[in-house]
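tl;dr need the bound structure. longer version: we got a ligand (2-(butylsulfanyl)adenosine) that a collaborator sent over and nobodys looked at where it sits. i said id run it. heres the input, straight from their email, havent touched it
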Amino acid sequence: MPTFNMANDKKIIEEVSYLRKEIQKHDRLYHTLDAPEITDADYDGLMLRLEDLETTYDLASSESPTQRVGSRPLPEFSQITHEISMLSLNKVFNEKDLIDFENRITKRLEDNTLLKFSCEPKVDGVAVSLLYRDGVLERAATRGDGVTGEDITHNVRTIRSIPLEILDAPENSLLEVRGEIFLGKPGFQKINERAEKEGSKVFVNPRNTAAGAIRQLDPRNTARIPLQMYCYSIGVVKNMDLPENLSDIFLVLDSLGLPVNPDRATGIGIEECFAYCLQLLEKRNALNYEIDGAVIKVNELATQKRLGVNARSPRWAMAYKFPAEEKSTVVLDVEFQVGRTGTITPVARLEPVFVGGVTVSNTTLHNMDEIDRLGVRIGDSVIVRRAGDVIPKIVRVLNPLGNKNPITIILPAMCPACNSPVEKDGEVLYRCTGGLVCPAQRKQSIKHYASRTAMDIEGLGDKLIEQLVDEELIESVVGIYKIDLDTLVNLDRMGKKSAENLLSAIEKSKSTSLARFLFALGIREVGEATALSLVNHYGSLDGIMSAKTSGLEKVADIGPIVAHHIRLFFLNNNNVEQIFELRSSGVSWPDVSVDRDLLALADQTFVLTGSMQLMSRREAKAELIKLGAKVAGSVSKNTDCVVAGPGAGSKLAKAQELGINVISEDEFVEMLAQLNNVQVRT
Ligand code: IVH
């Protein structure tokens, strides 16, 4: 390290401090304000000079912009408890409900004076909390369930528009800011162009990409995604004087170098706020980031405090959600797909269109009735709608007369996969009569059998199954257990190692559970939950195979139609033979002898509501059924327990009204852990 004198020393420290401020300023100009003032090369020059000085004179510190990406991945996320809960928002979809929101507030305040509101875009990203102690970013956390979130400081530090240090913070001060981390539209496009170039998987939409990026254990992965943030509120504040109105707080946050949304406004009275919502909707497509509505908040903090909060959302704020996004496109073709059970489904191939955050290039038309209802023909311009995570759908045909060469969609008389006759099944469905002769059904049934939630045969993916069936190497699921190494290594793109791995995965999958096996058989209407109910009820495959329809109907969740399908399946000798062959190949499961009354949650009825963070709803349902419980869709006096996650609404209210036991997801998980340990089951 060079020796240096006091004067030199001071100069170096001043230069380091100057460079850090300069870099922070340019980060903000580039990443928040979209108004760079220097070239990338000049910016890199500043960064290199700073790095050089910090290493030469041993001046590196964690607040320096050179230290944004830490070097080591974390082993796991640690939990953080929010001192003030992070609430969510109530939502409305129309003007009337927005007016009602204002009326409720004025009534509660007993004051008819028009209120001032802060109007903000509802950014579609991930809610986070940032904590600055004495001006230094100490901690960043996800919202989690509102009370406990995950520590994501290492990742948030990589976001260039978030300052690692805020300007002129008073001593002993604490400032918690909250906001939305998101991926802008240009950033999304950039990373997808890169992914395409690198031949890696493209990202589906900006929101999911942001959510995934922020939950990386290795911050270097987060740093590859150009995330941004807009702050929308404050949390814990100590030793800092902040203004009394939210709109003024935004100005202060901005002056501290924190990113705030430039598209915010204020409105006096709800009418002005509604006008803001409409204007925002108008410019939605032109914005550089995705939004799904507007948020209207009482501007004065003291009034917010007077109004207080409900169970999980403030009374002083409301989300005005935009209608689902709609775009027009053209129906290029309609193909008929054959499902696992032979159902023929028309699928429209569309001119690709970006709607609701994803590119849509095909969509199901469900059945011929839907085609008639829409009056859609090949070549028609149509409106496609996609809301949230809902499957995109065609909602109507645009200007039918504009289609100069319309082609009417006709249901094929013969199955497109096997040429067997197609026949009507029920009110609207059509089905291929080919059964196992039909390769489409064979492929689908093998894919289903091998899938993760069924027999879980790792390495036996869709492409390989298609190849095996096309080359007539396997005909049905039984064939899986007859493949040998020679056959596999002779396949295209299959090395010896992968072939061996696949064979050992097939071997491993033979030891399974009865519920998985039953589900894997692909009996119509028998999903994972129904399979578990059957196992819980009968305890053995023989019991299920010989059950009469009347007996099956007594099983939890099984009605006459499902009972009929199950009975029909086991009356078919082909199926019985297949089961015999599968068992002869070594597929087996531990004996389940069940006395239903001994199951820990025997005959208790649960309702799941709100979102779940720790497990999927499907998993929660399966766990409950395994323990003997029934899972109902609505709350009634017969409900024993409601599991309420964030966002729970009317079901939670009803449970509270009826005095039914309500537990959080955390408590639910705890309960499962306990019950699974003490469960009486042999
Ligand atoms: S305010 C107490 N403002 O929308 C109010 N939320 O449930 C808390 N969001 O989790 C939220 N933009 O992540 C607020 N301008 C904005 C927002 C916003 C997006 C998200 C936020 C929250 C969800 C609503």
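gonna send this back to them w/ a short note. Residues 100 and 507 are 63 Å apart (CA to CA).
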